[in-house]
Structure formats: structure tokens, C-alpha cells
Amino acid sequence: MSEEPGQAGAGRPADPPDTTDDPDRPATYREVFAVREFRAVFGASALSSIGDYLGRVALAALIYHATGSALASAAGFAVTYLPWLTGAPVLVALAERYPYRRVMLGCDLARMAIVAVAAIPGVPLLLLPVLMYVSAMLTPPFDSSRSAMLPQILSGDRYVLGLSITGVLNQATQVGGYAAGGLISAVDPRLALLVDAATFGLSALLIRTWVRARPAEPRLRTDTSLLRDTAEGFTVVFGTPVLRSIAVVILAGAAFAILPEGLAASWSGELGTGARGQGWIMAAMPIGAAIGGVVIGRLVPPGPRRKLIRPLAALVPLSLVAALLSPPLPVVMVLTALTGFAMSVIIPANGLFVQALPNGYRARAFGVMQGGLQLVQGGAIVLAGAVADHVGVARTVGLWSLLGLLVMGLVSMLWPKSGTFDKAFAETRARNEAAAEAAERRSRESADADDAGAPSAAQDASERRVGPVQSRRRTGRVGAERP
């Protein structure tokens, strides 16, 4: 389960030391991008993410061209979202047993091969959703391993700013991936699948060349079953008070922020602005999130940033309460952008999350959070859509946001005190040290057992002289003397 450092990066200058230990000074973009491994992970993540969106558009286009059915096309598109709600937690738990770099490489290479097969002309239409589903099943272990690797690459406030950069990247690749997928699919959807496969290959090349090999994270126990490992991911997130509080803030915020994007088509129809209005509403959220990432992640120092978690969490639903007044499109866009800005609460919250999370649970915990985000966002859209059919979109968004204010008020009341966080951080550091010591002890015991079981050179020579028959006789006598 360990991975020895290879030649990746050999002969190249080491990454600059982290100089952001000062708690009052925020990290800079230059300091983050000066880390070679982060640049590689950043580029690999961008390529893999763009590939995901390219594949979704190409699959939907292929199905629609073949069937002419909007329902069949939508169903094919939705297939790629299923893994987080099906077998992803188990795959993430399995991935955590191996070095994160190896998992990312394996996922990229496997996805490259699968999508390349899907791009072959003549592949049966019914097989395409199956192939893309299998490819999408490898996204959760890739994303979780990347999230778990980031604290190994960046430390201190560099890590927090790195999260902010990753968040902006996610928004940009979503827009760029869908746009590129549409343009290429207009020429030939299978060409889009070929480009999709190439993005995964390039991502693997970046990781292989520029990311240093590290051993798997040490664990206190290695004899647990895969199902138990999966369950422990949920237990550590929702069974640890500090992690549970952070998780609730992030998941609740996502549930109340998703409605403008999820109901954009019907909201623009209600406003009479058509597809143009839908596009503007959907674009407002990532614009606000990008601004929030720069302001909260880069300009606000670490200490004040931590204190902004509860105000930003309350701002998420508060910014959309004005929807009760049925505002025009420009106001809707401003409100939606403000919600995206408020969702930058994820930046300081994730910074606390990783400090309270034992190293051996990183991939599983991030997988739990990713799956939870998919679940609460999808559930919120379905529920709000059902209500909007009866009372209208604007009123639904406003009422849903009022409910969000009550929820965030309760979350704020139950938010742990600063001393509770400090105690949790100290316990996590102690747990990480214990896991590292246990792993080192197992390694020594394994090495001692190997040495004890290996025959000496003199014994080998003696056995060769006496021949195999006498050697077997001698072995039998020794064995007979043992109890």
C-alpha cells in the first residue's frame, strides 16, 4: 500500500518553503502557484473536469441525434451524476488504502481508455450510457484523492487559498467544458469524446511527471473490511462534533444556494426572459463565487476569515429572501451573485475541516461531503420544483430562503466555541502521530520477519554441498525437535 518516491521531479528545484505561518498574513497567489506540485494538480484537475463536462454533453448529443427524444437525452445526461449516490463511497474507501497519486493516475488512465472505446464509431447506443457511467464512477475516487492530497502539498494559509483557487477553477471548467462540448458536439459528438479521452491522458501525464510519489496515509488499523472503512467515513464526519458542525454549515448552505441555478429555466420563463434570462441567472452564481473566492480567500486575513463563517452562512439564505417581492431579472442576477459570494463560507470552513480531520480519513471524508452535496442539492431542486408548480418560482425561492434563515440561525447557536476547535485540532494531531507510529512499528516488524525468514548465505552454500536429499533429512530432524 505504500509508494516509494520515483524520479518525478528529480533534478528540479525543490518547492519554496512555506512562509505563511504568520496567522495574521494571508497567503498570496504567487506563493501558491510557486509550488510545482500544486501547478500540476491544478492543471490535471482542470483537464479532468473539462473532460467530465465534455463527456456529458457528447453523450446527451449522441442519444438525442439517435432517438430524437429529449427525455432519453436527459436520462443519458443524468447517468453521469449517479455515481456519487451509488457505489462512490465504497470506491473512495478503497482508494484511501493506496497512495493518492497512484489512485489519480489509475482513474485518469482508466477513464481515458473507457471514453476512447465509447468514441469508436459503431459502438451500440445502449452501451454508451453504461460506458460513461463506469467512467463517471472513477470521478469520486479521483476528486477525493485530489482533495486529500492538497493538504500534503500546501500548508497553512496556502492551503486555504489553494481551496479558493480550486473553487474558482471548478466554476470556470463547468462553463468552459459545457461550451466546448457544445461546439465540438455540433461538429461530431464522437470527436468530443475523443477530446474527452485526451484530457484524461494529459491529466495523467501531468500527475506522473510533476507530482511527487508519497506513501499511503498511515492508519491505526489495517485489518478492517471495506464496508467498515466506508461506514467509518460517515462516522468520522457526522460523529465528531466539530466536523459535524462544519459539515452542516456547508451542506445547508449548498441546499439553500442551489435554487437559482436549479430553477433558472422556470424562473426565467416566469420573468418572460426566456433562454437569455436562464443563462444570465445561471452565470450569476459562479461570478459571485469567483468574487467571493478572491475577497475571502485572498484579501481577508486568516483570523478574521474564521470569524466570518457564521455571518456568511446566514447571508446565503438572507440574500434570496427578497425573491418574495418578485424582482426583475437584473435584481435576480444581483441576488444570485450575492448568494454565490456568500458561499465562499466554504473556504474558511474547509480550512477548519482539514485541521480537525485525521489524515487516514481524508479521502473518505471528502467523499462523504461530495456525495452529501450532490444529495442535498438534488433533493432541494426536486422539492422546490414541486412547490414552484403550485406557488410560483419567485415565491418558492423566497419561502425556501426564510426556512434557510431559521436553519442557519440554529446552526449559528450550536456553532462550537473557539476552545472546542483548538481541543479538536490537538486531538487530531495526537491521532495522526499515533497512526504514524503504528505504521512505522508495522513496517519494522515486517522487516524483522523478512530478515528472520531469509536463509543465510552460509546455510545456502551448505545445503548446496550436502545435496537436496540430505538437506531434506536435516530439515526433518530440526522440525522433529520443535514442539
UniProtKB/TrEMBL annotation:
Task: Give the highest taxon in the source lineage.
Answer: Bacteria
| Coiled coil region boundaries | none
Q: Name one GO cellular component term.
A: plasma membrane
A single Gene Ontology molecular function, please?
A: transmembrane transporter activity
Q: Which residues form the Major facilitator superfamily (MFS) profile domain?
A: 241-483
Region Disordered: what ranges? Answer: 1-26, 432-483
**Database matches in InterPro entries:** MFS, MFS_dom, MFS_trans_sf
In Swiss-Prot or TrEMBL terms, this protein is called MFS transporter
Task: Note the CDD domains from the entry.
Answer: MFS_MefA_like (cd06173)
Location comes to: Cell membrane
Protein topology in the membrane: Multi-pass membrane protein
- Look up keyword Transport and say if it applies: no
State the UniProt keywords alphabetically. Answer: Cell membrane, Membrane, Transmembrane, Transmembrane helix
Note the Pfam families from the entry: MFS_1
Task: Name the residue ranges with Basic and acidic residues bias.
Answer: 432-447
Q: What is the originating organism of this protein?
A: Actinocatenispora sera
Segments spanning the bilayer are 70-94, 114-136, 191-211, 232-259, 279-301, 308-325, 331-353, 365-387, 393-415
